[in-house]
Write a structure and sequence with these properties.
Layout (H helix, E strand, L loop, with lengths): L4 H29 L5 H23 L2 E8 L5 H9 L15 E6 L4 E4 L10 E4 L3 H20 L9 E6 L2 H4 L11 E6 L11 H6 L5 E7 L5 H18 L6 E6 L10 H23 L4 H5 L3 E3 L2 H10 L4 H14 L6 H6 L9 H14 L2 H48 L3 H47 L12 H17 L12 H26 L7 H4 L3 H16 L4 H6 L1 E5 L2 H62 L9 H4 L19 E16 L8 E19 L2 H63 L4 H20 L6
Parallel strand pairs: 1-6, 1-7, 2-5, 7-8, 8-9
Antiparallel strand pairs: 2-6, 3-4, 3-5, 10-12, 11-12
Helix pairs in contact: 1-2, 1-14, 1-24, 2-14, 3-10, 7-8, 10-11, 10-13, 14-23, 14-24, 15-16, 15-21, 15-23, 16-17, 17-21, 17-23, 19-21
């Protein structure tokens, strides 16, 4: 049986307190043996250690639990937030209302803070002692103002950041969660996917890695295409949140829709089974590195709105209770059994307290609220410690833990080797250790860097090939596919190396290209389809999330092309044009300009879309590379502990792993056609005066003769959409290989920077040991000889302390 969350935190705190006791005992013993000039150093080290221990214990006793909510289109995410709070304080609407990040922090008093943001069109400030209605109305106005500005193309308006302080029921009711007494709980209502990329939102969402996430899915959607889009939204949401989907609880919200069916248990059961399968299958396909976590994902059923109303029905506020009763009666009476409905008065105002309680209890059960809380608590128990405690322990080690173990081991070993004879041997040994460590790092660095250098070199060759654009009749080369093959082969080799245990986590190092390619195709294909059909078909998810101004311009441009004569027949077969008249020439020029304009719009739309996609995908790539570098650190630590077992070399992950990347896609598209000046023969009537013999040549009359006249024309071959798409794909491939090259270069630069940091870090540790050995030797010269019967046991204690600090937090496993 799994220990509850309190026991886990208490066990980790106890292990840290035991380590502190060990250190205190050790420092008391070593202080008696150390010369006085060591005491100041020891006191400073102990002070830092005690501060770090106090900070760690405080963090363990006052952890922060963050529940981040997100979801698919119209999935009732904001309603779920209100359900967790037990009140309607976050605006809900038929259309997407989420904009910016709304953070709800537990507080006994109610207040609202709206941060000042660039270009804000709403009132910013802080308001205290508000009612639920006040909070709701202010947030509603903020979100509507922002969304309207977004629709109007006012990109200078930053997304709103708001904070609500509220006594929400998730904490107010101690039976719901079993947390340490001083745990701080906050709910982060994240923006809809369309607004995730807004400036300001991204940085907040990236800080959610220590959050437990609730991802809601719209169970009421039945349209197959929209269902497919929802499944893709689930994947995109998971990618936006970053990290393993194991920390995410998936909620099939609005499941009450099935209660309207006569055979609802069967239809609901079939839907649940199919949707869980589809979600896991889709996630597995797009997040290969988390296959094991995905297979164990927790997916639950829920109806957030009736669950919230059932809470409000039991409110002591009669007006709120009656309002909730009215909504239940009008919207969800199908959740109430007939025998209960028959006993109720026709008017909800006449429902007695016991009748309201009875209906609320029935609706609570029908909405799966009880099961939701059960699974939420289990989810928190299972994942909250693993998300929070390792971070706390790592901060402790970086602040003082590693420094204490290094000092204890090096100081004791320095005194053991402080005699003249041992000192000289140890100095020589340090020289050998430095050489061996340098050689070891060089070898392992090449193992790490080598595969990525192969990738970079291979991509250089591919870029040279891709620059040689073939004619449209030639088969399209796909340098991206070859790049994938190269990278997959190299990572396959890594799987067989020292990193094989983490092989699955390396998939994003090359898997990110798939999402980028699909995003580009989701823009190009609807455009081609619209031209082929002669009507707008721009309903892809990527286009719908595009800049509204650019999207509207795209629609107008396609309509103009169709009006100018680019008909479905032309789209299918192309057409030779010979523009003879001035009007025909003007129309041809306009058609060419519109095609060029279409290419320019596609360039802007695709660069914008790909940038957002890459920002999301690169978070996975950073995680993968960080995993690889952490594995490299573990290998280095193990190897160095063999080379230098008495120097206490440990690396701080927080200090060494600093990874960042920003890609700038540069897609270029062309769609126009060459207009060539030509000639055509025009037969014209030329007047001529003629005298006839029968008039005795006295009278002239006009006769007309045909004469051939050469005239100029504008000639062009209108391209068929098949050829346009083929050309666009060629240009797309080139741009993607360039992005590949940027990523490969980033791999190398980050690895080189990382290796340099490792070399510098370990050299400082060895240099500190040399200094401590020199100092101990000087002391030994003064006091002649150190008593090894004292120092050998002290060193054993130092090694035990090191071992325990390394194991700190392992109780989680």
């Amino acid at each position: 049986m799994r220990s509850n969350i309190k026991n886990i935190f208490e066990a980790v705190e106890e292990s840290i307190n035991n380590i502190n006791k060990e250190w205190c005992s050790f420092q008391d013993k070593i202080r008696e043996q150390l010369p006085p000039d060591y005491h100041t150093e020891l006191e400073g080290l102990n002070l830092e250690f005690q501060i770090a221990v106090s900070a760690l214990v405080k963090e363990l006793s006052e952890p922060v639990l963050t529940l981040a909510t997100t979801g698919t289109t119209s999935s009732g995410k904001s309603t779920l937030v209100n359900f967790l709070c037990g009140a309607e304080i976050v605006p809900v609407a038929v259309q997407e209302m989420s904009a910016g990040v709304v953070t709800v922090e537990y507080s006994e008093t109610k207040s609202l803070k709206i941060d000042q943001t660039p270009g804000a069109l709403w009132e910013c400030g802080e308001w205290k002692n508000l009612t639920d209605e006040d909070i709701y109305d202010r947030l509603d106005q903020v979100m509507k103002s922002y969304l309207q500005a977004n629709r109007d193309g006012k990109t200078s308006v930053a997304c709103p950041q708001t904070r609500i302080y509220y006594p929400f029921r998730l904490v107010a009711n101690p039976k719901l969660l079993d947390l340490p007494e001083k745990t701080k709980v906050r709910i982060m209502d994240l923006p809809g996917l369309a607004h995730v990329g807004d400036e300001g939102n991204g940085s907040v969402i990236r800080k959610c890695k220590e959050a437990l996430c609730i991802v809601t899915y719209n169970s009421a959607e039945t349209d197959r295409q929209k269902v497919s889009n929802l499944l893709q939204e689930v994947v995109d949401q998971v990618k936006e949140l970053g990290g393993s989907p194991a920390r995410m609880l998936f909620v099939l919200n609005r499941i009450d829709e099935f209660r309207k069916d006569q055979n609802w248990p069967d239809s609901e059961r079939e839907f649940f089974k199919r949707t869980v399968h589809d979600i896991k299958q889709k996630l597995t396909k797009d997040l290969e590195e988390y296959q094991e976590d995905i297979s164990a994902l927790q997916v639950i059923k829920m109806s957030a709105l009736p669950a919230l109303l059932s809470i409000q029905m039991n409110s002591a506020n009669q007006q709120k209770s009656t309002q909730a009763c009215r909504k239940i009666d009008s919207m969800f009476n199908f959740l109430i059994p007939e025998d209960i409905i028959e006993d109720l008065p026709r008017k909800v105002e006449r429902w007695e307290h016991h009748e309201r309680h009875r209906v609320a209890k029935t609706v609570w059960e029908a909405s799966y609220a009880k099961e939701f809380h059960k699974y939420l608590k289990e989810h928190i128990d299972q994942h909250f410690p693993q998300l929070v405690i390792p971070q706390i322990i790592d901060r402790f080690k970086a602040k003082a833990g590693n420094a204490v173990t290094e000092w204890a081991i090096q100081t004791t070993y320095a005194f053991i080797n402080s005699s003249e004879e041992d000192y000289q041997k140890e100095c020589n040994n340090i020289f050998r250790i430095q050489q061996d460590i340098s050689q070891f790092i060089l070898q392992k660095a090449q193992e790490l860097r080598g595969p990525f250098e192969q990738i970079e070199n291979a991509l250089k060759g591919l870029m040279e090939e891709s620059n040689q654009i073939p004619s449209l009749e030639q088969e399209l080369p796909d340098p991206r596919a070859r790049a994938d093959q190269i990278i997959a082969r190299i990572i396959g080799e890594l799987r067989e190396s020292s990193y094989q245990e983490r092989a699955d986590s390396l998939v994003p190092l090359y898997g990110w290209r798939k999402a980028m390619t699909e995003g580009v195709e989701e823009i190009l294909e609807p455009v081609i389809e619209s031209l082929d059909n002669g009507k707008l078909c721009l309903n892809s998810k990527t286009l719908q999330a595009a800049n509204p101004t650019m999207f509207n311009l795209l629609e107008r441009t396609i309509d103009d092309l169709i009006d100018l004569g680019y008909s479905p027949e032309v789209a299918e077969n192309g057409k030779e044009i010979e523009a003879r008249t001035n009007q025909e020439k003007r129309n041809l020029s306009k058609l060419n300009d519109k095609l060029n304009q279409l290419a320019d719009i596609l360039k802007l739309l695709i660069n914008e879309a790909v940038k957002k996609i890459l920002e999301r995908e690169m978070r996975r790539v950073r995680d993968a590379l960080e995993t690889l570098l952490n594995a490299y650190l573990s290998i280095l630590e193990e190897g160095m502990s063999t080379i230098a077992p008495n120097i206490g070399i440990s690396f701080s992950r927080l200090q060494l792993v600093k990874i960042d990347i920003e890609l700038e896609p540069s897609f270029e598209f062309k769609a126009g056609f060459p207009i060539v000046e030509g000639t055509w023969l025009d037969y014209v009537k030329v007047p001529k005066y003629k005298r006839d013999w029968w008039s005795l040549w006295l009278y002239e009359r006009i006769v007309y003769k045909k004469k051939i006249k050469k005239r100029s024309s504008d000639n062009a071959q209108l391209p068929k959409t098949e050829d346009m798409l083929k050309g666009w794909l060629l240009q797309k491939n080139q741009a993607e290989v360039e992005i590949y090259s940027q990523v490969a270069h980033w791999f190398i630069s980050q690895i080189n920077s990382f290796i340099t940091g490792v070399e510098s870090y370990q050299k400082e540790i060895v240099d500190r040991y040399q200094e401590r050995l020199d100092k101990a030797h000087d002391q030994a010269t003064l006091s002649h000889q150190q008593d090894l019967s004292i120092w050998n046991p002290l060193q054993l204690e130092a090694k035990q302390l090191e071992d325990n600090i390394k194991k700190a937090g392992k109780v989680l496993r």
